[in-house]
Amino acid sequence: MRVLHTLTRLGAVLLAAATLHGAPAAAADEPGWTAEPAAGRPGTPRPYFYLAGTSGAVLEDRVALANTGDRERVVTLRGADAYNTPDGALAVRPPGRTAGAGSWISFGGATTVTVPPRTRAVVPFTVTVPPASPPGDHPAAVVATEGGREVAVRVHLRVGGPTLAALTVEDVSVRGRGAATAVAYTLVNRGNVALAPELALHAEGRFGEVPGRSARALPVELLPGQRVRLTEPWPGAPVLDRVALTLTVTAPGAAPAAAKASAWFLPWGIAARTGAGLLALGAALAAALLLVRTRGARRRPRGEPETARDPSHERAVREHELTGAPR
């Protein structure tokens, strides 16, 4: 998990990754106002909200809105579900499309807050976990909106009970050639907790082992039930070989997941020149054969069929000429 800064995108608020080890709190990208978790203790900032409880519990926390400008700000607050975009980024659902943990967040009568200039307002909110809610992580966010801008502060919410860390890697393929070679693949979180995956690439060619990629952390937090499509640069791809790839993905608490693929690597420049030479040679041979047939056809008068010679007739003629008999 990585620190959550906020980015605005059409229809959704993107969340950068966050870490449990602490970093600057989520804030507006432009000066004027900020939204962040209220400090638990004086001088102790929090990068996100972290709440845990059993199904049916009512959890409480506070969001701090700071107006650093010279004019009054009217900020609207709401809860939203967090999810992964297809490329692995974190985002929150737009208004009207929240049906998960975001809908459990309530600000009571304080959904709209007026913050005077150079003033900090602290707004309490509750998270009411429905009875019989499944255990595990339920990603959500507190979203503050003012003047057409949105700031999302991540809510790490865990419902008590058995947890399962499980992922799979699917649809492995190779794209590009040379320095632009990359391996595309799909990651699926099949458990009920968020995962911080690591990836390793092993390659075996016809001529021996090919340089792959050692295990490294991926820049993505994979939320429960989410599917993302990623690419891994592969600068060590061979120039000429047929390679068997094994992509292995691990995450804390989860069993390793692996998928295989194969790919041909050919030096396309040389192959193109060789192919052009073979085509030229074939065209020259075809032209020569056509020329030979054309010349053979010209030696016979048109319309005169080619008849087979009778050897007995030729022998009789020769004998007749030798004896000098009258014809």
What does this structure look like?
- With 327 residues, the chain is mainly beta.
- The protein has 3 domains: 6-159, Immunoglobulins (Immunoglobulin-like), CATH 2.60.40; 167-265, Immunoglobulins (Immunoglobulin-like, Sandwich), CATH 2.60.40; 280-322, no CATH class.
- It is 13% helix and 44% strand.
- The protein is built from 2 helices and 20 strands.
- It has helices spanning 268-298, 311-323, and strands spanning 6-9, 12-15, 33-37, 49-53, 58-67, 73-84, 90-92, 105-106, 112-115, 119-128, 136-137, 140-146, 149-159, 167-175, 182-189, 198-205, 208-217, 227-233, 241-251, 254-265.
- The strands form 4 sheets. Strands 1, 2, 4, 6, 7, 9, 11, 12 and 13 form a 9-stranded mixed sheet that branches. The chain has a 4-stranded antiparallel sheet with strand order 3-5-10-8, with no helix packed on it. The chain has a 4-stranded antiparallel sheet with strand order 17-16-19-20, with no helix packed on it.
- A hairpin with a 2-residue loop joins strand 16 (198-205) and strand 17.
- The longest helix is centred in the last third of the chain and has 31 residues, at 268-298.
- Residues 1-14, 16-29, 269-277 and 319-327 have low confidence and may be disordered.
Return the string of H and E elements: EEEEEEEEEEEEEEEEEEEEHH
Q: Identify the overall geometry.
A: elongated
Broad structural category: mainly beta
Largest sheet: 9 strands, mixed
**CATH C-level of the largest domain:** Mainly Beta
